[in-house]
Amino acid sequence: MIEANNITLRHIGPFSFVPLYEFLQEALQNTTDPYTSPYFRVEGNWISITNDVCLQITNSTHDSWTIYDNAGIWNRIVTWKLPLVTLLFQFARPPFAWRLWTNTNVFILLHLVGDPLNTITSLLTTLSACQRRVKTIQARITHIHHDLQQTNPSLAQRIHQTQPTLTKTFSLLSISYSEWNVPNAEPFLLHSLARILAAPSTPLSQAALHHFETAASALAADRSTYVLPIFIAQFAFIFAIGAAYWRVVGVPPQPQSWTNVEAYAIAMSAPFLHVVPAVFLGAIIGVPQTETSVPRVLDGLRERLVKEGWMEVGEVGGILLGGMVVGLGWDREVKGVGTG
Length: 340
Fold this sequence. Notes:
The chain crosses the membrane at residues 226-246, 266-288. Helix content is 65%, strand content 6%. The protein is built from 13 helices and 8 strands.
């Protein structure tokens, strides 16, 4: 033991925050002037032990390392890692079959964490494409409505009343066809919309509209969105960062809360803040419930419209999956299967 300035420098065991904190409290009680003591470093209202004193009383060197205690490690995992992992797994991912689930999901999560610019750009591009298709449908309905205001005001008024429903129906179909790269789908939908609005009272138009609305409702019900769980996970992650920042700025060091540890935790988590908007955008876009649900709905719509005589067999390309006209997911990319 070494005594100097009424302070006893004794060996307290291996490096640990709690014994060091207790030594600091004891040393402050036994020193007359910590501002002039060589064992303390004073910065404003903060008083800490110098690095040399810490090394001496723990029998450590500048090159030595000490593992944090289990409680400290677990506290860091619960406070920082679990909210981040929870947020990552809330990110919307396509419902691939088990044969591709592991590799695809690992790639998606690594891409989300490692390439924020491309991830955000892709999500915003998807939202922009959806918005463009909605505006295209709205513009077509508005154009037809204006043309009919002079020649058939009653029909124009009816179109105006049904415009929100028609816009949702044909926008959902157009977006779904686009996601699966079905050829000639958008011109067919716009032409079908014009035919229905030109003669909405005919049995054929009513039957076709019923099939379109049924398919759009099935697609909307199949779309998986988790806004509330996403909000809760994001709130937990942001709250953890805010709480740690408050502990660094406004709370003096305590045995369970150390400024440098919290500062490192903030620094390690800050690069992942881009996950918050990415997961939120993914929640808005959503994903289908199963791999083949959307293709089955779209091909079912095509079959019903062909039976009604609304369209020709080859007017809109089918969706192929495994050699059958059902739906085209991963097979186009893996097996080279095309549309026909």
